[in-house]
Amino acid sequence: AQKITQTQPGMFVQEKEAVTLDCTYDTSDQSYGLFWYKQPSSGEMIFLIYQGSYDEQNATEGRYSLNFQKARKSANLVISASQLGDSAMYFCAMRGLYNTDKLIFGTGTRLQVFP
Amino acid sequence: EAQVTQNPRYLITVTGKKLTVTCSQNMNHEYMSWYRQDPGLGLRQIYYSMNVEVTDKGDVPEGYKVSRKEKRNFPLILESPSPNQTSLYFCASRAGNQPQHFGDGTRLSIL
Lengths: 115, 111
Fold this sequence. Notes:
Number of strands of chain B: 11
Distance between the termini of chain A: 41 Å
Shape of chain A: globular
Number of strands of chain A: 12
Oligomer: heterodimer
Order of helices and strands of chain B: EEEEEEEEEEE
Radius of gyration of chain A: 14 Å
Mean pLDDT of chain B: 95
Largest sheet of chain B: 7 strands, mixed
């Protein structure tokens, strides 16, 4: 069965520092995609970054990067130079790439950025 | 503007009174899906659809129905709502291997 595990219910980081949010996954699929979403207190789900299982390079999007370690089945999100507006819930998710729309989410990590 | 639109955004209702949450997307996406979000559980998929007239169960389909008669619409139907269906609901759509675009959510309270 597919599963996403986020072991950090909450994290604190000081403004301008980098922070890593952990995500491990379990799947028997050979082809899959890994996603990170941000949910601010206003409630909407905002897509941040995507990593495909066959991508050799770690994905980057601005201040977000995904530390993908396939053998360890981990897909950690790194946020560099944290800003106060980064305070939110962060969800890791996984989906098979073919003939499915089944998206599995982790339970989330609440990040608090302090001045 | 590309968007996924859910209605209503908020609803308080009573046990057993049938309700429908509508979802519409204007991006011509093939895939659409419904999720519920509960504290400590993250988002769990209820149903998904890979195209018109093609739907499949997600992880928590019990008590819900869906239909996909048109590409742009994917309503979620609660035939006989119960208090354990009180939750925050999200509709999402996508094309190809792109990430899901989410609606703004519908907060349902069933008394």
